[in-house]
Design brief:
The termini are close together. Helix 3 runs parallel beside helix 5. This protein has an 8-stranded parallel beta barrel with strand order 1-2-3-4-5-6-7-9, surrounded by 8 helices. Helix content is about 45%, strand content about 15%. The protein has about 325 residues and is of the alpha/beta class.
Length: about 325
Amino acid sequence: MKKIEISVLDLAPVKQYKTIHDTFNDSLDLARFAENINYKRFWLAEHHNMASIASSATSVLIGYIANGTKKIRVGSGGIMLPNHSSLVIAEQFGTLESLFPGRIDLGVGRAPGTDGLTAKALGRNPMNINQHFPQQIQELQRYFSVENAESLVRAIPGEGCDIPIYILGSSTDSAWLAAELGLPYAFAGHFAPQMMEAAFEIYHQNYQPSKEFPEPYTIACVNGIAAETDEEANKLMTTLYQAFVNLVRNDRKPYAPPVDDMDEIWNPMEKMHVQNMLKYSFVGSKETIKKEMQEFQKRFRVDELMITSHIYEHEARLKSYEIIRNAVDDLNESLC
């Protein structure tokens, strides 16, 4: 097995009885904490029209996090590119890279990050997304290139910036594209586990080396809920269970505190559906997490795990990331 890099995916979760200002303060505090214990990167994801997620203005929030940290890489996991003009994203991330040189990542996906009505309000055209998304990635690469200085349309800032592009996916479609373009590939295993194995296999088997990335690079995003004991972690996990039950019910209210008994909240069909969506969740004590990660890595052999941890109490969330960091360090040491 290969050693694992470890990173953070933050959705800027909004919690019941808390403000969005509280949310942003917690995200910055988490980024600083993750930086201090040597997480590789801190990514934020674009979502819209969800009372539980405050990362809709993703580029703005990336700037806030990068400005409040010193060395950790900060980026998008991701920008939903069909919601935007390629030029505008090139300018925004060119600005970020110019402000924080060598620290900015641009992860892009094709999903709306929202419901159909909101996607329409964002100006998406569902008829041409699969065709336009690859074209937009190539447009970004062109805007970032030094050669684009001869073009009539230029990204200033952006031109000549060294901003790595990562392709995100929750199905096999983007695996083919990432392999064809020779770009790193991140899979959303934290909510769409069913096709992750097939997507990684497609990506590795069809990878075309590029100048920037001569070797394939895979990131698996998973849920991580750690505590001193398995029992405590399982209770903390009920906040995420409730959030996914709310998604099933199309109720996007803020995240709720943990509960003692989920069976008082979900019905058997909801329970089965939610647990299937959260299949790749590491939940438990340090030793349990380490064992689960070891089994995961034997199967998937990813380069990097990106952990998203929906825990209601902020201090418990920080502690979870610390335990997961320690579990990964122990696992990597055993692989030496």
